[in-house]
Structures are given as structure tokens and as C-alpha cells.
Amino acid sequence: MDIMHWPSKFSRLTAYDIGQNWQSAVSGVLENEWRSVCWSPELGLFCAVATSGITDSQKVMVSSNGITWQNATNASNGDYNSVCWSSELNLFFAVGNIGRNMKSNDGYYWYRDNFAGNNNLYSVCWSPELGLFCAVGANISVVSKDGITFTTNIITGIDFSRICWSAELGIFCASTYSSTTNIMISRDGLNWTNANSPGQLQDGNKGICWSAELGLFCVCSNSSIKVSADGINWQNATSGVIENAWRSVCWAAELGIFCATAESGTTNQRVMISRDGFNWTNAVSGQSQHRQMV
Hints:
mainly beta; six-stranded antiparallel sheet; single chain; Neuraminidase; disordered N terminus; about 0% helix; about 45% strand; Methylamine Dehydrogenase, Chain H
């Protein structure tokens, strides 16, 4: 499979050009603690959510270009950790602390529910194949087919961090804050199995994503980036500024690259890109500020 599939607005640039030239956003409530961002291809819209901010009603921003942002005008009160988009339901779905969740069809107008329970939810993703949202958090996993009715499973002792879905493998793969159960996998979002420990994944807000083109999961944390073809057996990345506190990673199929961001570490070297998950190149521009989402 040719992963070098470039959209028409890009030239065939090298890995040293793509993903390394960054600029700051210019509007919106940028002082907030933004935790998650996702893209809706149907709406042509980015959506970001925050856990803290100037006011409770300004925890959501939207943007059509990633540079100029607009505050949602009817965002629900609460502290939100993660947001995802369902093309099938035409729905943004966000989860947060003490069991809060909220939904929007356009990114601007939101309505809130509380699922049964007070556990913090840290990450959510959508499985088109299962027709299912799956959210994970402190000792809990939650699934929903519509963002309205929820089924929960209390998993004592497992503090989930981030989750992603692999359609090709038919599994959810989640990272955790635990140093003994780093990675867990599930076929239904409720029943989870420990993967072979990746080893030396440090406690932290570990990011995780799936590349269908490479057939690889990629997970990052403090001083560690690892990849796996099955979610069970993991290998170390071999280059880049690995000692940084990496917090988030995503895959761009159109560009054929992973992009990872760090919360702390070497100044101006808090973004890395990789074409294979093993070999990473440091970005050379951008501000030396905390970065927790891509």
C-alpha cells in the first residue's frame, strides 16, 4: 500500500518539511487548559475542549483552519478531557470529570448529560464498525451507541488514560496510568485484557493512536515511544528526543506521518514526526510551551 498519498494542496515535501513548521493560533480563549481536539470532515471543523478556563461556559472552541478559533456559544458547564466525532451519527461527543458528557451536531451548540456514576472520564473514541462510543477513565469503561444510553463496567485498580480503535484488528487499545498494566485491549469496550507490558512506560498522560496504513499502534509517555502491530507485543522507537514527557500522538494518513507533542523537555524540541513509528525527527520550530494534544 502506498502511504505517500498527498492531498492536492501539498507538494511532495520531505519529512523535514511536513509537520515541522508551526504557528500559534490567533483567537479564542487560549488561556484555558485545552486537553483534546478532533476533526469533523463532514463539517470541515476542528473542535477542542478544556478542563479549566475563564468561565465554565467557555470550555469549547471550534475552527475551520486550526489557526483562527471561535468560542462555542452554548457550551455546557464542566471540566472536559476528551472529544471525538462520529460521522455516522453526525455528532461531537465529549467526556470529562465526575461522569459528565456533552454532545453537539455542529460544534457550536451543546447539551449535557451525566451518565450513571461519578468517575472521571479521560478519553473517548468512536468505532464505526461497532457503532459505538467507548470512553475510559478512573476505574471505569463506558460504551454508548447514541451518546444518550450508556453501559458501564467498573474495573477496580485500572486507571485508564487514552483510548483508540483499530478497525483492521477489531479492538480498542487503551493506555493506563499504571506501571504494571501499561496497555489493555478490548473487543467490546467493556471487557478488557492486559497486553504484554511494553516495559518502561512511565506514569503519565500517555497518548495512543492507530495507523491503518502502517498497521501499527503508537503509544507515548514520559521518556518513551513504542509501537505494536497487534496491541500486545511492543517495540521501542529508536531515535528522536525520547527523554521528553510525550503526552499525545496522532496519525495523518494523507501525509503518511505520526506527530507527537510533549508537555516538557528540551526547549523548542517538543514536537516530533515519524513515517514508521520507529525513527523520529525533531521539529525545529514552534513555541517552547506545554503541549498535550494534537
